[in-house]
## 1
Amino acid sequence: MMLKRLRERRSLQGTLLISPALLWMIVLLIIPLLLVVVTSFGGRDPDGNVIYQFSLDNYTRLMGVPSGGFDPNCAPIAWPALAAIIGLPSLVGILVRFVSRRAQGESRSAAILRRAFKPYVFVAAAFWVYVGVNIYSACADALYVGILGRSLELAFWTTLLVIALGYPLAYFIARAAPKRRNLLLFLVLIPLWTNFVIRVYAWIIILRESGVLNGILATIATALPFLGPFKPTEILYTQNAVLIGMIYEFLPFMILPMFTSLEKIEVSLYEAAADLGANTLKTFLRVTLPLSLPGMVAGTILVFVPVMGTFIVSDILGGRQVILVGNLIQRQFLDARDPAFGSAASIILMVMTLVITIYYTRRFGFGEEVTAA
Amino acid sequence: MSNRRSPWLRLFSYFVYAFLYFPIVVLIVFAFNSSRTNVTFEGVVNIPDQCGPFYWFCVLFKDQHVLEAAGNTLKIALTSTVVSTIIGTMAALALQRYTFKAKAFSEVSLYIPIIIPEIVMGISILVLFSAVFTWLNGALGLMGDARLSMGLGTVILSHIAFSIPFVVLVVRARLVAFDRSVEEAAMDLGANEWQTFRRVTLPLIMPGVLSGAMLAFTLSLDDFIITFFTNGPGSTTLPIYVYGLLRRIITPEVNALSTVWIVVVFLVLLLSQRLQRRSV
Amino acid sequence: MSNLYRNIWKGMVVLMVLSLALASCAPAATSTPTAQPQPTTVPKPTTPPQPTTAPTAAPIAAATAVPTAELAMPPFVSKPTTHVMADGYVCPEPQPKVPLTSKEVNLFVWTEYIPQDTLDCFQLVYGIKVNRDEYSANEEMYAKLSAGSTNYDLVQPTDFIVGLMIRQGLLQKLDKGKLPVLSYFDSKYLNLGFDPNNDYTIPYQAGTDSIVYNADKVKTPPTSFADLWKPEYAGRLVMLDDSRAILGATLLTLGYDVNTKDPAQIDAAKTKFAELAKGVKLFDSDSPKTALIAGDVDLGITWTGEAFLAAKENPSIKYVYAKEGAIVWQDNYAIPKSAPHLDAAYAWLNYSMQPDMFWLMLRDFPYTNPVQGALDYAKSDTAKVKDADGNDVTPADLYKAYIDSPVTNTPLEALKAGHRIDDVGDALPLYDKAWTEVKGQ
């Protein structure tokens, strides 16, 4: 009886404590998101007002379904046929695998067959993807899917390059003497604290045709004439400028959580590995890398998600002709006067990042390292 | 362990540091540029009766709009930090210590803002405010200054919204490592729940609360996207102002502003480091 | 209050007659430099003595009736205040100065379009705060306004979007009785098709969109929009980030109308523009001159004022009127329906466009200036002020540069050959879509 009352009281206390935060989240997160979902099924009138209705038009437009439906003769018939012929054996492979899993204990021949088919399945899958992309771009209006793909590609490269630059540095800091460690970390923090917009602006000065980078390159070229005549690089207002800007913006977000992970690894572990005869590479692959994975996962999320959703970097460094999902959404709301379509695009963006991050965190685990940033 | 570090690693790390600092150095150097268009560096500006080489800094400090934007930024950051830290700490305690009905739902809704792109949150809040304000202004017949509109209020509300989840995350991390036997001991000694919280729990989780507040402050100070969608007349923040300057012909005034910003940040960070070291 | 305004109008009509008489016998008496105190012989426009029964719109009607606008204009006498700006500009006294109850005024204006001196003087003279937010596309301004949750008192729509804004009920009718400044306008810019009686808008600045190029870098200068498609220019182009203007220029190269509603023609323009877009390095509706001056781009399509300012930094930057005819436009001031600070909005319009204030546009943002009074004032004023580069200039110098330049003082034939962009109603989504699609590729 006492216990039950105590439990009720504690439940009440918990509810009281959570309610302000929950209220905030419901009013400024859940309800707005639901509104966006509702809007995304709407349409627009000629003047650009939202018409609330239920139609999937915005989504089919995003997916690139042509307004008049698909043209049956849009792709040469040879492609699907070829895909089918090449794909058939792999279908057998999948079937064998499926059956052998079902059966109690795999028979020897089935196992051999399955293993033989395994590489083939990959080849066939790659081919299918290739054919699929070709048919899609021939039949559908690939514009918006293309923008999504380009954003994903950019986010992927940014994340990869940020890891490549950030991992060694995080390792370097984590292994530094404790006294210097604070200073080194502090030095990573400062650029993070200078404003986001200011950080992009710096790259305009550097990358423009008469900018600092070309100035330095020209000086090198005149000092070393055997390198040939100097030709200024044109980086500003290209995809590469956007990539550089993104890397610079988000590098600290990768270094900090990775550092937290790497710092936790006990020195004794390295010593044990060395005692057991592992060389540097082996120690790295078997000890350091697996133990630092949670930090890398947290860092990846902290980099990948904002890169997918930002629009200023591409706006300022991309000359407004590098269009990413963020720009697409912003344009629908502020330029093209089509909030319904913009809402649909942001729903797609949200679902995409949610799926990717959830899959990624499930796969590799999600540490408290996010908090380090 | 320093013997373990290869010279290549050291060299590479210095290279990354150079990459991090090269743009900052360029920014600062160009703040002293004598060329107004600021395309190439054409020597140090030097106007004797107007602050000499610090000409652009003087221009900056005479700029009423910059000072106003700086004031707005601080107002927004301080308010949203205080509110989100209190609410976030409460929520962290609730989630870590208590069981209640909407727990799973709360966990999820406090996790979403961390993993959805900011632009989605920004436009959804814009859609909400537009709908609610249009409706309320019409229904209540509000006129003139009484009309609800985008401004400081909407920016602060949205900043609190995106800060809370991060505060919760940080404070919970501290609570996980918390030794509850201390609290039990306090209770055994006759302290009631509030006294226990006030005298025992709060001081122990204080570092977590403070770093949560620090994070909230940083996020608010740096935010561009959500402010971009929720601001209105008179609520221009520094990031929005800088973005506006970038859209015009860019004079070294922007660099002067960046330099001041960097120096202030540097000093604040240095000070907080010193204070932390002393308290440890 | 309205009595006061009516009196002002009456006074102006009287002054008009007086000035006609004066002009016929003593031509030198009309202009006085700012530095001098006012001569007592010229009556102040703010204190009109005789009552007449002219309706409020009379000066405008009179302006359109009289062939030369200068004749219809009351002479303007500047009165300095004690406020002096850092560049040497002396804030003039507002004429008339009306007491305000509002404590602030919210402007929503184009980037780089309001002189800093104007903002500062208004704040000093009226003692209220001016909040300025900026946009770089009409569509952006329209979207924010139609979202319904903004408190702006003044916006600056370009001609073609005015119709849409009126239709959507976003603008309120102007009370012309409260706009004495209208009498200083050149009637050429009033009563245009998009707002036939100027019920909702008053002109701010006009200009054209045409070709700009850097003569140092471009060996064979383009003479028509169609020339921009030449492969030698690819990768060096800058374009306004403005769907109607750029697609409009594309339509012209195909021989279509800039305001076509025919989906097939718009589609053809889209396909043709897609070829050009591959070679466009930068879309910029904020400050395209920056990239031109920096040498990041060598040619493209920009507004007149940007070309003029770019040429000041680098004289090899030239502006040419395209053979097909340039795009002609006019920006206007309008008051949103929900404007909370009406009195301040009217005070702003009158003060910021008052002749001794509005000539600042010749220095800061030199587009085609519709306020004839401001041009007349500048012509003879020799008070020195500093320009953005810190050089001493006088309004008279600026006036000369303005009048002599075919960029700012649009030649009549260029104006005649020009094409004005209109509201296309139902066809607008087609333009929006074509634009997004081409840029997204």
## 2
Amino acid sequence: MKQFLGFIKKEFYHIFRDPRTLLVLFGIPVAQLLIFGYVVTTEVKNISVAILDRSKDDVTREITQKIIESDYFTLTQNLQSDTQIEEVFKTGNIKEVIVFEPNFAQKLGRDGTAQIQLIADASDANTANLIVNYTSAIISDYVQKQNKLQLMPMQIKPEVRMVFNESLQSVYMFVPGTMALILMLVSAMMTSISIAREKELGTMEILLVSPLKPAQIIIGKVIPYVALAFINAVTIIVLGNLIFGMPVNGSLTLLLAESLLFISLALSLGILISTIAKTQQVAMFISLFALMLPTIMLSGFIFPIENMPVVLQMISHIMPPKYFIIIIKNIMIKGTGFGFVWKETLVLIAMMMVFILLSVKKFKIRLQ
Amino acid sequence: MRTIGIIIRKEFIQIFRDKTMLPIIIVMPFVQLLVLVFAATFEMKQINMVIVDQDQSASSRRLISKFEGSPFFTIDGSTFSDEQANDELLAGRSDIILKIPNGFEKNLVSGEVSDVQLLVNAINATVAGLTNAYSNYVIADFNKQMISENVNIIQPVKLKSVDVTYSYWYNPELNYKIYMLPGILVILITIIGAFLAALNIVREKEMGTIEQINVTPVQKFQFITGKLVPFWIIAMFELGFGLTLGKIIFDIPIVGNLGVLFGFAGVYLLVALGLGLLVSTMASTQQQVMFIIFFFLLTFIMMSGIFTPVESMPDWAQKVNIINPFAYFMRVIRMVLLKGSGFRDISREFFSLLIYAAIILSLAVWRYRKTA
Amino acid sequence: MTNKPIIKVENLVKKFGNFVANDHLNFEVYEGEIFGFLGANGAGKTTAIRILCGLSTPTSGNLNVAGFDIYKQTELIKRNIGYMSQKFSLYENLTLKENIRFYAGIYGLSSKEINKRMDNLLETLKIGDLRDKLIGSLPLGWKQKLAFSVAIFHRPRIVFLDEPTGGVDPITRRQFWDLIYQAANDGITIFVTTHYMDEAEYCDRVSIMVDGRIEALDTPAGLKKTYKVSNMDEVFLKLARAS
């Protein structure tokens, strides 16, 4: 036991001695949280648009004014002819061109209808879709006001309530997502690399002939990372709350316990990777490829799982972060208790057991 | 020149000899490319709806069937109890609840405005916005039908209307895959190139072979060049291969000039690999290099505009992007492939990166010490 | 062996912070001799050898290697020396042939010349069958011998060997010294560090370092005479105790 404690101490020293590594390990959650909070918002803001106004009358000016007054758009250029549209799209900045037909106000007054054409640079389909929707909404809002809100009979008026997130903030998505991403990467990547390092430098053999049991060696290597990842988890919860107002509506104890479970799962995954990898490079590339992009893209963090093709939905079922994200969203946002997340918790525990069993098996084979 | 050639040959022998790394470098990125491109979509296909119909009338059923008929909605339950419906939302099993109150039809027939309630699960704000928009389309459609069926009863009011038409250039079907594929490809070739280059020198340090090289008369720029070129070639090759796959499987458009694209990619890779080498010359263990590169990689990827437009980012983030090589290439690869931008359109980015490459590589050469 | 100095060291000082690793070293190495650089672990041998190879810069002192100044003409020195470090330094995942072609290529030898010398080497060592074997698959003894052969492959004027025989069995050590003698016969000056005192007997002259200073420098016979003992081990023990 004393030797074991000594060994754990050595591992702690090893990590904490290098300030650069330490800075990275503690800097990652902070940086990522700030990036997701301020930078990678799926909200559309300050999109550059150009206007080709063939009419140049009061109404078109008024509509233009309405559009650029909104937070969504910035008027970057006034075009004079069709040929310029292609040009402004190709240089890249402008995402939408709004074209008013000639004699716009006149037609609207005389025929009751006039035409606006929205041309979007749809190379980015998602953004194009959003921009066009927003622009049409502004235009129809304007028209409705012109019609002085005439109430039609025999109509349904929907009353919409945004449940759990009245003001449609993106924080509810990115705080749980960032937490899953960081814990997964920090825990799995760091452990797999640090164990592979011992193998590569030949020090693993020395450890294996020591009186320490193999299980003790592995646990000893892992414990510092449990501590580190746990600090990261707490950092994210605290910063998420202080800076972005992410609530913890449910039980904090449950939240921390689930985080600890997820960290353990990620670590066991890291151990499994290290039993396969002989060198640090291999361990890192496997962790990075198997974990980084899939965690971002297949866990429901950014892209909703329901929209994916069936095959990918099936793959997403074996992504541990998916369950963790469901769990923490439930606890933090909906304030639900264990009764609502026990199934996901069981899945995580089962996955962890599988990873540990596989690692033990691989490890034994190697020793023989 | 010959010395550089000798270093390059040695690197290639080592890369191709490593039977565990080879599939990781060659196969894994493309598996990822194929799988992940499908994942990246906000297109709503299946919105799960729970219905609380307290009216149970012909009109309420008609509204429900309108939702059923929409390609976006799947009705996966109906109940009389508010509580039960809320539970469905709470458990995350449904995305939206439609509540039709008692007296819905009565109001409607008597010519009044009738209320329904939509409760949207708004944890994902983007999805909630779209869900809301789609349900409004369905309801507007219902309203239109009511008017046209009852023109004799309702007095027609002459309203002004603006006819908005859309056209989506470069991608009329709003296919998101053709936008994501180049982006993911950029990430993959950068991860491969930058990490391999970065780990290479520090690995020689860890193994002790660097000392043997440092006592030879090899010049610093020869050494750095010899380390850079192999990974540059691999990354360029992977870019070509990835584009070919994209063309065959996803039919991504290649509107612009491939010469321009690869020319730009070449300069971009000098920066990405140069940054890797620079970190490598400063670090003493592979672990350090991995953590440092990983940190910058994750940060730079997220800020590059791969998922969300750079224009929507705050000013400070756009300033940070001046030193983010990803941001340049992410933008240019999409411009050239999808819109056919020519060299003139991307020249500013090209020359910025060229200067960047010169600075980074000089730094790497300068920072590489043959003497401790 | 001549008395023409090929390495001249005057007042070499190397400090790491407050720690003085080399404390005013003064010595000369003559062309063609086998110069033993002895001392316990941590006495400062590796520090000195790394400075002489241009891998590390001295804090102060005048140093001249192969006729070149160590501060200003480091790269010229490197053309004239070979080095075998304590850490094993051939690429494990390259074959013998590939290792040789790489290192010799860096020194600018032509492919023709490389092939000629390689055939020669394989024949002398009678290891033609090892040519295409990965270095990593060879036993340690062979790796050391090959590392030495690669270090002198470009025929340097001086070769620096830092604990070349660490961790190998006595028979291999003996064979290794045969290689050293052969190189010396070919006119290469040998600068070798070791902490095996029996190896000191094989050297033309030895210096003994204790705590960063050179405490003695003479032929093995001369040293034994001065300290009135029968073997080098005792010379060393006497010196170590004295400090």
## 3
Amino acid sequence: MVFSQLISTIIFLPILGAIIIAICSREKPTLLRGIAFIVTLATFCISIGLFSGFVVGDGGFQFIEEAPWIPSLGITYKVGIDGISLFLVLLSTLLSVIAVAASWTDIKTRVKEFLICLLLLESGMIGVFVALDLFLFYVFWEVMLIPMYLLIGIWGNPARRIYAAIKFFIYTMFGSLLMLVAILVVYFYHGSQTGSYTFDLLSWYNLNLPLSMQIWLFLAFGIAFAIKVPMFPFHTWLPDAHTEAPTVGSVLLAAVLLKMGTYGFLRFNLPLFPEASVLFVPLLAGLALVGIIYGALVAMVQADVKRLVAFSSVSHLGFVVLGIFALNIEGMTGGLLQMLNHGFSTGALFLIVGMIYERRHTRMIADFGGLSSVMPIFATFFLIVALSSIGLPGLNGFVGEFLVLLGAFQAEPLWAVVAGLGVILAAVYMLWMYQRVMFGTVAKEENRHLKDLTLREAAILLVMVFFIIQFGVYPKPYLDRMQPSIKTVLQRVQERTAHLDADAGALGLMNQVLFVKRSAVVTVPHPPAALTQGRQRP
Amino acid sequence: MTIDTSSILVSIIGPELVLVIAALGLMVTDAFAKNKTDQRLLLWIGLAGILGSVAVAWSLWGTEPVYGFGGMVVADNFSTFFTMLFLVAGGLTLLMSENYVDTQGLAPGEYFALTLFATSGMVLMARSTDLIMLFLGLEVLSVSLYVLAGYMRHSDRSAEGALKYFLLGAFSTGFLLYGIALAYGVAGTTRLAEIGNLVAQKHMLKEPMLLAAMGLLLIGIGFKIAMVPFHMWAPDVYEGAPSPITAYMSVGVKAAAFAALLRVFSGSLAELHDHWREIFWIGSVLTMTIGNVAALLQNNIKRMLAYSSIAHAGYILIGVVAGGQMGTAAVLYYLLVYTLMTVGAFAVVIAIEKQDEQHLDIRDYAGIGSRHVSLGVAMAIFMFSLASIPPLSGFMGKFYIFSAAVKEGYIGLTLIGIFNSLISVYYYLRVTVLMFMKEPEGEPIAVRIQPALAAVLIIAVIFTIQMGLFPATYLQFAANSIKIFL
């Protein structure tokens, strides 16, 4: 067992699978699906090794692998995981298995290319979460774009798939290019300060960037991540991409790709630009709250179930961002947990929408009604998932949302009040949709003879529901592994910002920035002028 | 003036000599060729010339520069790098042309010979350490290409493009010559190194004649790299010329002109960089932006690639502006990756193009990706690479260029470059959208790829991926080639 190269194995196994599929004949789609299924399943099984080998209580990085890549620029192939990325990696590998299974009958054209895209996407997703070298991270971040773009553009809904695919691509690209410049700026700053030119994230963590630089860098990274999340007002690509993508595309987009934005905030923005993060808390929390309410209100009026679920993502991801920028242990843990919960709940919702679309070729709420009597098993799964999305106690959504609200309340009670309103609205749009689709009398003739779930579909949903319940009833194994890493991040932020005037909070910091001469901050590397002033005040 | 024959050192121009001899051999063989099978031989003679030249050029790769012809020609790492680049581009052009001359019914003899002559001109340009020699190389290159651009005699567009290229080219050469004359007037020499020394010693920054010379040289060279506002000729010429020649012009001529630009500006006139940096800064911004915006509107694939090549010259200019070890190395590396991905893209165009310039509309590409998967995937790789998506080589090139710019503090220029990349994503994606996501409207296009063209595609795909994933060797190669400027 190549235990020391566990992470590389799970990154490159799907690529290997893609190569094998590329060689095989396209005449046997079932064989190709089988290969893809075995590869993704093997990847998932190996990734469980990360969970079992993970040292609980250690907030640092584990399973680190390092190899030189482009030595002249200080670029290394460096990967590793901590409690934050561990579960996101597991989520990616698990949902890839689900994705292959869910596409079994859904995708009938160009199966070979579809599976290759799916496997490459999996490698990209895992890579993003494990990269500890900023250059490597950027490469994975962008690599992922191509298969997703193809998934939407080729296998999407014929009417508007191309528009949605291009919008998705250019939107994301815009953010990532800004991030690229920011990465380069930090790289050269690090080089000029320490003499070692490296893209190693762990070295960058020791860097004290002047506040004036941090602000710009935070914005450049932040816009890239905010687009990916997506946060209001950068969310407009999401409803189109989700609605037009094939079921599997929507599932992976919602369950994994959106998490990269919030993951980016946790991994890069907070530890690298702590002072700027504190400064921007009001802005980000504000946008998160707008997203929560706005997403919920727009979801309420959708006529298309898939679009409704898409907008509910905007609302749910608002909770995640709010939790992260509450900047306390409860909020951040809740945010991270909510990332996983959203992956399961919304992933399952998209699967459910896909299953019903496969039968009826429509997703309009008005076309349904009374399905619970025709498809009882389906109705049961749907109900559990819908309730989990709302945050019913005992199911996963509750734990995350509760922790987020707790954290938000500690930070600023008003936030919790507004976010609480979002929870109520979630119940409104989700239950109302459920009622219109599932209950009542069967109004349409076509709906009278719909087949209930097949064994394959039931098994897929069973896996999702298993985790939905397990996270809700016993989240301890997850929380135990997450919290030390979150504490590490939080400590880093608090240590760096402790000398700032605690009572004045963000507003005081803002004043300090405004009254410090710009040139002084730019030229004096460290300690930055703004911070020394803060220190002298008490 | 006495001529010291010992300083001639013929071996210095070995690569050029091999090319010229091969070209002459081609013309003789062509004269005696009776049938098609004899004509097959022509390609092999051409390739033999290229390979021989590669071998000679590689033997000159060393640490110390060697001067010949009284110091007018040099063999240093810089020139060897560019020689290799031209030979690779020239060899791939020959391979692509094999199929093309056949389907378009062109006479292959002169065509191949002229391609080799043009290559020898480029090599001479990269080697020259004297403005007169530079001019000589440029003329050998240009005259061959004036003919090649109009090689499709029966096509109106080809004739129009060639005439335009000739008139504007002659005009710009005039500027270059005036620049050389003025530089000679100020410095009393045409040797680049001596001009450089004089500029450094005498603080001639205020000398109006020198500045005028610099400006005129800039126009002359700017014309060849299609720097805005001297780019007007490019789209028409690129559209009209035979497709392999278009590919060759957009990579070879551009690289040769950049070699000259680096020799003259980063080398000889380095002391004046405060003056020319700003000009190139503006030139770079205009070139990127106008190239990209115009490319958005094109429906003819050759025109689109022409404008895209203008835009890429703009990105490369960022590296020139940034300068220094990193910026200059980035220019070289970028030219290398740009050559392979652009040649690859043109190879796909040639595979799809039919007689009488049919199927050059981008909309003709609809559905090709689903019926000819390998061709579609190859084109997608070139397009994504041109759009600088990692891990392809185009991304590495831009990454290196932008790194150099950020290092030198040109954040604004970098941001403009980045927004331009974003614009370019749209038109490169459009090709992939058509190839993979649309169905053809009329009869599907039949595509048949001859072995020579397949070889070009395979080489281009492999290197586009390999130079992106493992760029370390190439970066080192580029860094070793620019020691003369430091």
## 4
Amino acid sequence: MALIESGDLAAVISLVPMASYGEESLAKNLTDPSWTALRAMRHEQVVEHFAKQISVVPLRFGTIYLEAAGVEDMLGENNQRLVEIVERLRFREEWGVNVYSDRTVLMSTIISVSPRLKELSERAAKASPGESYLLQKKIDTLKSDEARVEVNRAISELEAILQAESVDARRLRVLKVESTEHGELKAKFAFLIERSRFQQFQAAAEKMATDLKVSGLSLELTGPWPAYNFAGD
Amino acid sequence: MSSPFDQITIDGESNFEESDISLLETLDHVLNRGLVIAGEITISVADIDLIFIGLNVLVSSVEKANEVLRERQRSHLTSESGT
């Protein structure tokens, strides 16, 4: 590993063999998950090592320069932009919040969670047997829709509350159709947090986790990450 | 697999409990995000998406990668203690 310096910036680089990292071989190697995972993890460990001590702009795995001079030119050409990012990220960390939905739990609580179903169910309780039957059927057909409404409502509420506790926030794409022990992944967020404010953020996230439990939603907090999602412009 | 960074799982009951950082979560960050600076060879955004989807689909392969990582760490330790 080595440093290439240009002005007040330095790039952390390592030399890699062209045989594996040349344009064609890289594209081919990247299709092998074991090959990619191992090297991407190594990349991450290096970024984390530096991110713990100084403000860094995390680059993605797979940015290859054919010559050291290319890196120096890049630092020079992008100096202003990179310095701005370094300053913006100083004393800040990225935290990820993943939202999982357990549908079985939500379907069992939706009548008390959804104001609309709650109202219908109260009416059904007081109604004549015939009317009660019809109301009950209506409730059953609405349950699915209301569950979706509740998940979206809860996610919006979570986003608004945690956004207020952070410097910046991003809603990320959910690429994976992932079912885990927590349920199905419904949303992913990245938050940029002032290190000194993390406890407040954590407290707000914990409160939301408690509040959303009744809706079958659980939260996963991951981090601190190098600010991958906030390194762009 | 050990990461210097902690991952914390919250559930309403036990609040924060630490768990192992998932490999996919890390790959999600490293491969899918981060600043792209046009290097002489840079993986294009589209390619990364494909790779990442591939990684997600091939969970068993990722499990294998985990094993590789563990083996790597072990053999690394072995070679270190051997010298």
